Amino acid sequence: MVVSIERTDENVSSARQRLLGWYDRNARVLPWREGPGAALKADPYRVWMSEVMLQQTTVPHATPYFEKFTALWPSVADLAAAPDERVMAEWAGLGYYSRARNLLKCARAVVNEHGGVFPADEAALLKLPGFGPYTAAAVMAFAFGKAANVVDGNIERVMSRLYAVKTPVPQARPLLRELAARWVREDRARDWPQALMDLSASVCRPKSASCLICPLREDCAAFAEGQPEAYPRKAAKAPKPARHGVAFLITSEDGFVVERRPDKGLLGGMLGLPHLEWRAEVWGEAEIVFPSIRHCRDAWENLGTYAHVFTHFALNQQVWRIELSADEMTAFLREHNAYQGLSWADVKTLPTVFAKALKL
Ligand code: SF4
């Protein structure tokens, strides 16, 4: 069934009022957000930080990182002056590490090129490292209260349902942006995208839309069709290619051995376990070259294999462990300059792909 909903300016304005009224009663309280009642004044630095962290990350997972980062570095100038290694270590566990590198580059650009003040101009924001159309629009709306077309995956979902868009994403993205722009007004410019996001988080959820309590129900073509969760339509996904690796866990009572990864490439600049190349073929035991340690080969124990999914491939990684005495560990680190020791308490500074190996 194809359903057509009349969308005059008047209808859109009245639907906006209903959603904003719902938002006034149901807005989430978030530590970076200026919400209804304005208990907190929006600060561009905090808004930007939250947006970088929330890319590909949920609010509950990102919030403790946001609290930690803004406590350690309360202003953009503090962050710009922070050592790279410290920022990368504190980012561990949030994933997509290029975001952390861009976070630093952007903080330094704001200090060096804009006197430590984020520009209230979308074109100028877009020139800053790590800023794309979404982040620039989000900072304009959430931090500066300007009318901007903020469209993330959640707002795409609401638009795809309001209009029952049959084209699958990602092809539908330009159309969804254009549909979202039709709802943007100067009036309550900050609240509008925040209201859409809160609706998408608690009412218009991906797998279960609670249409009966939705303030946009009478404006929604997917509800009228009776199958809201059928939207957004998705193109069939190609399976991710598999890669295989071998990680080495060299431990003593005090901790374990890590290496700093090259600055460029996947997980660039982060700490990681020593490992063999991530390749298409499974590593046979006979071809594994273990780090040289004055022990017989039999001292290595195979702990098993774990899976970790990156954006472009799925990794299956074997883990081999060897336990050294404190003296052997000291000698090993002295002989191998490329490696360094970490205490067990430092597990949290490892990216998730390596922290999983320690869980084995
Ligand atoms: S009526 Fe249902 S599908 Fe439509 S916007 Fe509301 S919750 Fe989403």
Automatic annotation (TrEMBL):
<dbReference type="Pfam" id="PF14815">
    <property type="entry name" value="NUDIX_4"/>
</dbReference>
<dbReference type="InterPro" id="IPR011257">
    <property type="entry name" value="DNA_glycosylase"/>
</dbReference>
<comment type="function">
    <text>Adenine glycosylase active on G-A mispairs. MutY also corrects error-prone DNA synthesis past GO lesions which are due to the oxidatively damaged form of guanine: 7,8-dihydro-8-oxoguanine (8-oxo-dGTP).</text>
</comment>
<dbReference type="GO" id="GO:0006284">
    <property type="term" value="P:base-excision repair"/>
</dbReference>
<dbReference type="Pfam" id="PF00730">
    <property type="entry name" value="HhH-GPD"/>
</dbReference>
<dbReference type="GO" id="GO:0034039">
    <property type="term" value="F:8-oxo-7,8-dihydroguanine DNA N-glycosylase activity"/>
</dbReference>
<dbReference type="InterPro" id="IPR005760">
    <property type="entry name" value="A/G_AdeGlyc_MutY"/>
</dbReference>
<dbReference type="GO" id="GO:0032357">
    <property type="term" value="F:oxidized purine DNA binding"/>
</dbReference>
<dbReference type="GO" id="GO:0046872">
    <property type="term" value="F:metal ion binding"/>
</dbReference>
<dbReference type="InterPro" id="IPR003265">
    <property type="entry name" value="HhH-GPD_domain"/>
</dbReference>
<dbReference type="GO" id="GO:0051539">
    <property type="term" value="F:4 iron, 4 sulfur cluster binding"/>
</dbReference>
<keyword id="KW-0234">DNA repair</keyword>
<dbReference type="InterPro" id="IPR000445">
    <property type="entry name" value="HhH_motif"/>
</dbReference>
<protein>
    <recommendedName>
        <fullName>Adenine DNA glycosylase</fullName>
        <ecNumber>3.2.2.31</ecNumber>
    </recommendedName>
</protein>
<keyword id="KW-0411">Iron-sulfur</keyword>
<dbReference type="InterPro" id="IPR029119">
    <property type="entry name" value="MutY_C"/>
</dbReference>
<dbReference type="GO" id="GO:0006298">
    <property type="term" value="P:mismatch repair"/>
</dbReference>
<keyword id="KW-0004">4Fe-4S</keyword>
<dbReference type="InterPro" id="IPR044298">
    <property type="entry name" value="MIG/MutY"/>
</dbReference>
<keyword id="KW-0227">DNA damage</keyword>
<dbReference type="InterPro" id="IPR015797">
    <property type="entry name" value="NUDIX_hydrolase-like_dom_sf"/>
</dbReference>
<comment type="similarity">
    <text>Belongs to the Nth/MutY family.</text>
</comment>
<keyword id="KW-0326">Glycosidase</keyword>
<dbReference type="InterPro" id="IPR023170">
    <property type="entry name" value="HhH_base_excis_C"/>
</dbReference>
<keyword id="KW-0378">Hydrolase</keyword>
<feature type="domain" description="HhH-GPD">
    <location>
        <begin position="53"/>
        <end position="202"/>
    </location>
</feature>
<dbReference type="Pfam" id="PF00633">
    <property type="entry name" value="HHH"/>
</dbReference>
<dbReference type="GO" id="GO:0035485">
    <property type="term" value="F:adenine/guanine mispair binding"/>
</dbReference>
<keyword id="KW-0479">Metal-binding</keyword>
<dbReference type="GO" id="GO:0000701">
    <property type="term" value="F:purine-specific mismatch base pair DNA N-glycosylase activity"/>
</dbReference>
<keyword id="KW-0408">Iron</keyword>
